[in-house]
Specification:
- This protein folds into three domains: about 190 residues, no CATH class; about 100 residues, Pdz3 Domain (Roll); about 280 residues, Alpha-Beta Complex (2-enoyl-CoA Hydratase, Chain A, domain 1), CATH 3.90.226.10.
- About 40% of the residues lie in helices and about 15% in strands.
- The chain has 22 helices and 23 strands.
- A hairpin with a 2-residue loop joins strand 4 and strand 5.
- The longest helix is centred in the N-terminal third of the chain and has 25 residues.
- The protein is globular.
- The N terminus is likely disordered.
Length: about 725
């Protein structure tokens, strides 16, 4: 359970971050309309799917970094991966179902070369039968009597159990599953028992409905991605809808009302309002409101969207700027059904931009406060100060000023850049401007916060590093042919040449690792956070498949995101699997969650290439880092917060190997002691929050600031990036 929850969080943030903000969808692809199961494609749809399947196969054969081909070995992997995609917890398929298709395990390559994906439909038909069978059983089990005093357990790791062999075994597995879900609901003591029962009935009914509503495009995406992920974890096929969502995320703008939605228990719930968007300016739609119907224009009929697939709801609400959409809403405040007419608009996703703030405290300990937050896209505009402070002063009695930049991703509007737009969206442009503003405010040190930054554009990571170094290699890239090509910062001079701290966690990946690795190799600053970053040391190319058919007027056939290169630090080491190891590690459960590259199936191996000559700045000498580490460890050792975190880490490591108790008394005691699933969910929700401070005041962040102040003290007058 824990591994599945964390994996969902990281996949949403790293592989498909646009799902959290674009158009209106949160995990839209996980909410597969209509009451009938998908039918075998016919006519043009069939021809298009054949074209897509053959194009994906050809490209993977010719250009993937692993130099493998879609052959019998990939076929075996893909079949196993497809079953895992559909049923990761082994709750639906029988062993006989899996064995039924064992004869196909070396034929998928042959099918794909002919564009034949009917195997996916055959497997999915069996899966839907099992989902219907199991959810019917689950509904009965919800109303059954359960003995919560019995000492019994449920295995949490699906790798430790086999597929079910009989209906009796399946019923028993689901009895425990339902019992576990009832226990989870019982942790909220304020929820009446009848409401818990009804909630679970809705959940299981919704599961069956969502799978029945899976479209042919979604099934194709799942099947082809099972094939591509048999090469490595980061190669995937994007359906036409998801390609549109990806483009929206990278250019940080969309056409719609500006809200994120979640499908839960068959209801469409508002989870996030995009700041400055149409819904935000209208002011009536609120977080936790339930949208029950959608109408087009000022007088169009309201269509009931109960149990409708989230992707379809999104497409009904999304539309051209200036047009009106009408929403029938059940308000979270209990005011009954309301109808809101909202005029769609072009919306900039500013909560996904870089943001900055300045932290300071007066010489006698009095709070001076935090400088107003600056958003990258809003020069001169500010939000309310959060009142965050740091405790330190200079020898002359003046305050230290620390500039913090929160960078959610290395975003870049690819279409805008390709089309030569002067104002295309770019993380580098935004951070450059923020650094110039921080210099004007005379900050002493800059913190680049890359926690939960899942990466983005390779060129942006190179140019971003160039803002902090003079010139030189930032990353080395090796292709399938073995050639290693350096990507250099060619621009002389740095925008910020003062002390630099980079904060990372295990969710910092790809472009974040290029940046952090280069800063570390150059000795340009110090890296603080989890033991290491994610460990994704590969480069993906996005190939829009329609452009292979027609360059002038390409159809939307979706896209293939394919691993074509592996990258290496200036010093020669790859970040693959290992990640960038922190100079100063702070205790955190996330360091130990199984979300790293090395935890993923078929991840490429670590290796290294020859180092390149590069500057060695005097800002991260080993003796300096060792002293910083010593001081931090002393503070952490005396910190009640970090001591509790160490205890929680120890308990988490013990518990993740243990099955889940279904004894209510023990279950509630364990959840009170350590509720990892709840923490993961809260973390996911916090990522979506648009009004949080740039650098919230927490014991963890306070220690980051304390290290930064020690860093300034130890550097003394040597605070410029000079040789």
């Amino acid at each position: 359970m824990c591994r599945a929850a964390v994996s969902r969080l990281f996949v949403l943030r790293r592989v498909a971050p646009w799902l959290s903000i674009a158009a209106l969808a949160v995990a839209a692809t996980l909410a597969p309309l209509a009451a009938a199961r998908p039918t075998v494609p016919q006519g043009k749809e069939l021809r298009d799917q054949r074209t897509i399947a053959m194009a994906v196969t050809t490209l993977m054969d010719r250009r993937h970094m692993a130099k493998m081909r879609v052959d019998d070995e990939i076929s075996r992997r893909a079949l196993d991966m497809f079953f895992k995609t559909l049923d990761p917890m082994k709750l639906y398929f029988y062993k006989s179902d899996v064995e039924q298709f064992a004869a196909e395990e070396e034929r998928i390559d042959d099918y794909l070369k002919k564009g034949d994906i009917t195997l996916a439909n055959r497997i999915f038909d069996v899966f839907l039968d099992r989902v219907a069978e199991r959810t019917e059983v689950a509904q009965k089990l919800v109303d059954a009597n359960h003995d919560f005093t019995v000492d019994e357990t449920m295995e949490r790791d699906p790798e430790k159990i086999d597929w079910m062999t009989s209906r009796e075994e399946a019923d028993e597995r689901w009895r425990k599953r339902v019992k576990y879900d009832l226990l989870l609901q019982s942790t909220d003591e304020e929820t009446p028992e009848n409401e818990v029962i009804e909630r679970l009935h809705k959940r299981y009914r919704s599961i069956a409905q969502r799978w029945q509503q899976t479209s042919n495009d979604e099934l194709l995406e799942m099947f082809l991605t099972a094939v591509t992920m048999s090469f490595d974890p980061h190669s995937s096929y994007m359906s036409p809808e998801n390609l549109e969502n990806f483009i929206i995320q990278m250019r940080l703008e969309l056409d719609g009302i500006g809200a994120s939605l979640e499908s839960k228990y068959g209801e469409t719930i508002v989870r996030h309002i995009v700041p400055g968007g149409a819904a935000d300016k209208d002011g009536r739609l609120k977080v936790d409101d339930v949208i029950t119907g959608v109408g087009q224009g000022a007088d169009g009929d309201i269509v009931d969207i109960t149990d409708m697939k989230l992707n379809d709801v999104v497409m009904m609400i999304r539309g051209k700027p200036g047009t009106v959409v009408r929403l029938e809403v059940k308000t979270a405040g209990g005011a009954g059904l309301q109808t809101y007419d909202i005029t769609r608009a072009r919306i900039e996703l500013k909560d996904s931009e870089a943001r900055s703030a300045v932290l300071e405290r007066g010489p006698n300990g009095e709070a001076v406060g935090e400088e107003p937050v600056t958003l990258a896209g809003e020069p001169g505009e500010a939000k309310e100060p959060t009142g965050q402070v740091i405790e330190q002063r200079k020898a002359d009695g003046s305050v230290f000023r620390i500039g913090v930049i929160d960078l959610p991703s290395f975003y870049m509007d690819m279409d805008g850049r390709r089309n030569g737009r002067d104002d295309y969206k770019s993380a580098v442009r935004d951070v450059r401007r923020l650094l110039e503003e921080l210099k004007e405010k005379k900050v002493d040190l800059v913190v680049m916060d890359l926690r939960f930054n899942g990466g983005g554009s390779l060129p942006e990571s190179v140019e971003m590093t160039g803002l902090f170094i003079d010139q030189g290699p930032v990353v080395q890239v090796k292709g399938p042919d073995g050639r290693v090509i350096p990507h250099n910062d060619e621009k002389p001079g740095a925008v910020w040449d003062g002390p630099l701290v980079v904060v990372i966690n295990k969710f910092s990946a790809s472009a974040s690792e290029i940046f952090a690795g280069a800063i570390q190799d150059y000795g340009r600053g110090i890296v603080i956070g989890d033991h290491a970053t994610h460990g994704k040391g590969t480069v993906q190319e996005l190939e829009e498949l329609g452009r292979l058919i027609s360059a002038l007027n390409p159809p939307n056939y979706g896209a293939l995101k394919m691993t074509i290169q592996q990258f290496y630090r200036p010093g020669g080491d790859s970040t693959q699997n290992r990640g960038v190891v922190s100079d100063i590690e702070l205790p955190s459960q996330t360091s130990h969650w199984e979300v790293g590259e090395s935890d993923l199936d078929y991840a490429l191996k670590f290796d290294s290439v020859l180092p390149l000559p590069h500057e060695n700045y005097p800002l991260a000498r080993p003796s300096l880092i060792e002293e910083l580490r010593r001081r931090s460890e002393a503070r952490v050792g005396n910190s009640e917060f970090f001591q509790k975190e160490k205890q929680r880490i120890e308990r988490y490591l013990q518990r993740k190997e243990e099955p889940i108790t279904l004894n209510k008394e023990k279950f509630l005691a364990e959840r009170k002691e350590l509720d990892t699933e709840k923490e993961q969910e809260e973390m996911f929700e916090d990522i979506q929050t648009n009004d949080k401070p740039v650098f919230p005041k927490t014991p963890y962040n306070d220690e980051v600031v304390a290290i930064a102040l020690d860093y300034l003290e130890l550097l003394g007058d040597r605070r410029l990036a000079q040789r």
